[in-house]
Design goal:
32% of the residues lie in helices and 24% in strands. The chain is an alpha+beta fold. The protein has 2 domains: 337 residues, Rossmann fold; 78 residues, Dna Ligase, domain 1 (2-Layer Sandwich), CATH 3.30.1490. The strands form 5 sheets. Strands 3, 5, 6, 17, 18, 19 and 20 form a 7-stranded antiparallel sheet that branches. Strands 7, 8, 9, 10, 11 and 12 form a 6-stranded mixed sheet that branches. Strand 18 and strand 19 form a beta hairpin. The radius of gyration is 23 Å and the shape is globular.
Length: 518
């Protein structure tokens, strides 16, 4: 068995060898849609048709991950899909959780109200989840075995699936073309697993389209304006068309506010004169937008979500499934006895719980905090703050505070926590959760590449593994049913040590792939 982390990673190369790898990597990336559109500014908006592209941020070497961790994370993904599908179908549970947030988190409150207004008037029993569960390796001390812990579970706009497949191909290409100059015995083909995320995610979309039952209907991609990460989306679109004959229409929420309508039979119709002289029928609404307040320009945009929910088109995700992916739901599921409401031991409840760190709400009383957390640190009895806030103060060096909001850049870390807690209005505590920090292995490095840099930056790094899955589920004659649930590939994002956030689109990390270590 190889030691973990591997000694001296990445392996040492001569400057000329690194330069050659850099050239090979950038040209491969540009030739295989491993790209972004260039940055733009209000004074220099993007052209109507793209005229240039840059390679996405990437690593030169794959990230070492224990083979057992990689395999286990994929095995339990079906249990995670089942869990969040059931949460999305449990109105009472979601109402209890969201009701506590409605006055302190306007965005979550608006989505919840939009769902409540239409949920008794829905005609489509099915919904599609394209999920991604994100993990970090966990090794508090060098002598401890390497485990993995969940960072979050994504239920909307789980991005970078297509580009992650291309990065896996990039590293396999570098191995095939150079052998990485014989720099490490770990760098061999059987340790670089293939990644079929595009086919996996598209298979979920195809299952929804086929369940809808109209062969020539379109799939609607709801996108953000001036999207730079367009190639990650287009690769899914091309797979749908070229392998399955399913056409895609892309529109922003602003465009849809005037182009979308329902027929008397609840068919979702989109007008797009450049594509069709008649309105286009939609089988599936796939959101790559709608996860942040800035996507909703007005109350009319929220009402648009309600229109989609009332249609016959299958939603990916539904409003309920989007709400299920919030951080507060993640925290409530970790409370004693709550997970077992949705998942039995036979279905993997204990395996899921083992991937969690301690977490609790800032408004929590002692009974709502996992016993292992409370017993680990004596909790002060003084002051007027709830137990959850007091515990966050006392353990701030070991914590991150997370709000409901998606998209990166919203978290509060370590030494910034006490002053943040002092400034946070008491009424807003329910919108925040405290999570124990995951402790990744140290002494792992990589060479990180960003477009425009002359050479790769060598840095000590931390890598995050994401596992994708799809689930088509809903109710039939009042009974829960899952039509199809499959794992759908994986993602690795790598960031320099000391960088707290992990989002590639937010500018904090690079795309990477897996090097399996036994």
């Amino acid at each position: 068995m190889s030691p973990f982390p591997p000694e001296s990673w990445p392996p040492k190369l001569e400057p000329s060898q690194l330069a050659h790898l850099t050239t090979l990597a950038t040209t491969y990336a540009l030739a295989h849609s491993l790209q972004y559109l260039p940055p733009h500014t209000p004074s220099s908006p993007p052209p109507p048709a793209p005229a240039a592209a840059i390679h996405a941020p990437i690593s030169l070497f794959p990230a070492p991950i224990p083979r057992s961790v990689f395999e286990d994370a994929q095995k339990i993904q079906k249990a995670y899909s089942t869990l969040y599908a059931r949460v999305a179908m449990d109105r009472d549970f979601l109402d209890d959780v969201m009701g506590a947030l409605v006055d302190v988190d306007p965005f979550t409150g608006a989505l919840w109200r939009a769902w409540k207004e239409v949920r008794d008037d829905c005609v489509q029993p099915l919904q599609l989840g394209l999920f991604r569960s994100d993990y970090l390796l966990h090794q508090p001390r060098a002598e401890d075995p390497v485990q993995y812990r969940q960072v979050e579970f994504n239920t909307i706009s789980s991005s970078f699936g297509a580009l992650s497949q291309q990065v896996a191909g990039l590293h396999r290409h570098l191995l095939a073309s150079t052998g990485y100059f014989g720099a490490s015995p770990l760098l061999k083909k059987e340790n670089l697993p293939p990644n079929d995320t595009v086919a996996g995610l598209v298979a979920g979309m195809v299952s929804a389209h086929e369940a809808y039952g109209v062969a020539d209907a379109y799939v609607l991609f709801v996108v953000q304006p001036d999207e730079r990460n367009i190639f990650d989306q287009r690769l899914l679109e091309y797979e749908l068309l070229e392998k399955h004959g399913i056409r895609v229409i892309r529109q922003t929420l602003a465009q849809l506010s005037t182009s979308a309508s329902l027929s008397p039979s609840r068919t979702l119709l989109i007008t797009s004169p450049k594509l069709s002289p008649t309105p286009i029928e939609i089988s599936l609404v796939y959101f790559r937008a709608g996860y942040t307040p800035t996507d909703y320009a007005s109350s009319k945009t929220y009402a648009l979500r309600g229109l989609f929910e009332r249609s016959k088109a299958i939603q990916c995700p539904s409003l309920a499934l989007q709400l299920a992916g919030g951080k507060k739901v993640q925290e409530v599921l970790a409370r004693p006895g709550v997970l077992e409401r949705f998942l039995s031991e036979e279905e993997g409840a204990e395996a899921l719980r083992k991937t969690w760190v301690g977490m609790w709400g800032l408004d929590a009383d002692v009974s709502s905090i996992p016993p292992a957390v409370v017993h680990a640190v004596p909790l002060s009895e003084s002051g007027d703050e709830p137990a959850g806030t007091r515990l966050a103060r006392e353990r701030s060096e070991d914590l991150v505070l997370k709000p409901q909001r998606e998209g990166g850049g919203n978290n509060i870390y370590r030494t910034s926590i006490p002053s943040f807690l002092s400034s946070l209005p008491p009424a807003e505590r329910s919108a925040w959760i405290a999570m124990e920090l995951i402790r990744p292995p140290r002494s792992i490095g990589s060479h990180l590449m960003r477009s425009g840099d002359e050479k790769a930056l060598k840095a000590d790094v931390i890598s995050e593994l994401g596992v994708f899955s799809s689930a088509l589920f809903g109710f039939s004659e009042g009974q829960e049913r899952t039509v199809k649930s499959e794992t759908a590939g994986w993602l690795v994002r790598t960031k320099a040590e000391g960088v707290d956030e992990g989002g590639v689109a937010a500018g904090f990390s690079v795309l990477d792939s897996v090097l399996l270590v036994d």
